[in-house]
Structure formats: C-alpha cells, structure tokens
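Protocol step 4 of 5: obtain the predicted structure for the target chain.
Materials: sequence only (see below). No template structures provided, no constraints applied. The aim of this step is simply to have a reference model before the mutagenesis design in step 5. Sequence pasted as it appears in the construct record:
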Amino acid sequence: MRPEGSASGLTSIAVAIEVDTGNVPLLLQELRHALQRLIEHGATHIIDLLAIPLGPGEQERLLARLGTGEIVAMLEAQGRSEIRECGYPGIWCISHFNPSGELAARFLEVTFAPALLSSPVEDVRHGLQRLSLTLDLPAAGSAAGWPS
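Step 4 output (structure tokens):
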C-alpha cells in the first residue's frame, strides 16, 4: 500500500495521443472526384487545408499519400510561396509563407496548371515593351493577335 498522496509512477510515463478525425480518406475521395470533374468538364477545385479539421500529423499523412510529382516552383512576393505537383498529375499543393517563414496558407488545387504560374496579359505586354526597348524595336501591343 502506498501512503496517501504518493505518485503511482504512471505520471512519469510519456503518452502520445494520436487524434484521427477520419478526414484524410474523405479528402482523398474528394480529390478523386475533383480529378474526374477536371477531366470530364474542365472544372477546377480548391481545398483549403488549414480550414479542414485535421488532427496532429494528419496533414503530413495526407501529403505523404499524395506524393511528389515532377514540378516544383517557388514564388517570392510578400513571403515565399511553393507550388508543388503531387504524385497524381492535376493535384497541386500550394503553400504560402509569411515574411517570417511561417506557414500562412496551404491549398490543394485540382487543375491542369495553377493560376499562380500563369502570367497576366498586362505583365506579358509590359515584358514585350521592355524586350522591344532592349532590342530597339517598336512594341506593337496588338501584334500577332494579342488583345489590346
């Protein structure tokens, strides 16, 4: 018998509690359906991973299940953004970090190519003007069928 108030020794045993919300298999099914809609209808789909209730380690397990594809792009604008193709073409993991390097947002985007990798028409026009100036050529804004 232990004296009253003495520890049983169980308090010194480290216990890891893993919470499984069950959302990982549901997200994988949602992605499968989104890929099917992308192929059949061209419909894109975005999942905000920070808005989904996931237990500790579930986001990492989901990303591990999705794997890594062939394309990785980095963007530097008010913090770093990483655009990674998953192991299933058409699924992209897009992570945005604040200027301190902390994760600010993470999305799974189902699309042929993420919009972040597409140059806006105005930026392309500006690039044409700059390149034309370096070559001493006139920049025709509506040349070759480009909209003005």
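Step 4 remarks: Residues 129 and 135 are 10 Å apart (CA to CA). The longest helix spans residues 23-41.
Proceed to step 5.
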